[in-house]
């Protein structure tokens, strides 16, 4: 049985497939439509404090991508992973947060979860989420 798609916060779909490519919407760390953490990623906080939020966001993206698959299909590879970080001024460990997302994908998909990646600091994110994750996969 499939997990339910993350609940869109606007007029969009959680993931869209074109041929064997799957593009997800940006996913924040929401569980049943509610953010599990809010606020910017702080300079004085260890990145491990944000692990649950990052894992929830990447899980949402992977669930959305997986729900585009037909019977007997699977994700063959995550091609790109983009991690947006609502970073407090002076925060520079964006890649360490992205590592948490990469590790989750590898736990779930093995080597197929290793992707080209970008970690981008931004001033704000929807709902004041600490992170947002988007991925492109192929099946």
What would you say this structure looks like, in words?
The chain has 139 residues and is α+β, with helices and mostly antiparallel strands. 23% of the residues lie in helices and 27% in strands. It contains two helices and seven strands; from the N terminus they run ββββαβαββ. The protein has helices at residues 51-66, 94-109; strands at 15-18, 21-24, 30-31, 34-35, 77-86, 116-122, 131-138. The strands form two sheets. It has a five-stranded mixed sheet, with helices on one face. A two-stranded antiparallel sheet has the order 3-4. Helix 1 (51-66) crosses helix 2 (94-109). The longest helix has 16 residues, at 51-66. The chain is globular and about 45 Å long.
Put the structure in a nutshell.
This protein is α+β, with helices and mostly antiparallel strands and 139 residues long. The chain is built from two helices and seven strands; from the N terminus they run ββββαβαββ.
Features:
two-stranded antiparallel sheet, 27% strand, alpha+beta, 5-stranded mixed beta sheet, 139 residues
SSE order and pairing:
Blueprint: E1 15-18, E2 21-24, E3 30-31, E4 34-35, H1 51-66, E5 77-86, H2 94-109, E6 116-122, E7 131-138
Parallel strand pairs: 5-6
Antiparallel strand pairs: 1-2, 2-7, 3-4, 5-7
Helix pairs in contact: 1-2
How would you classify the helix and strand content by structural class? alpha+beta
Distance N to C terminus: 19 Å
Give the DSSP E fraction (strand runs of 2 or more residues): 25-35%
Number of helical stretches of at least 4 residues: 2
The percent range for helix content is 10-25%
> Secondary-structure element sequence?
EEEEHEHEE
* Strand elements, count: 7
pLDDT averaged residue by residue: 96
What is the makeup of the main sheet? Answer: 5 strands, mixed
- Give me the Rg, rounded: 14 Å
The order of strands across the largest sheet is: 1-2-7-5-6
Give the uncertain stretches in residue-range form: none
Global outline:
globular
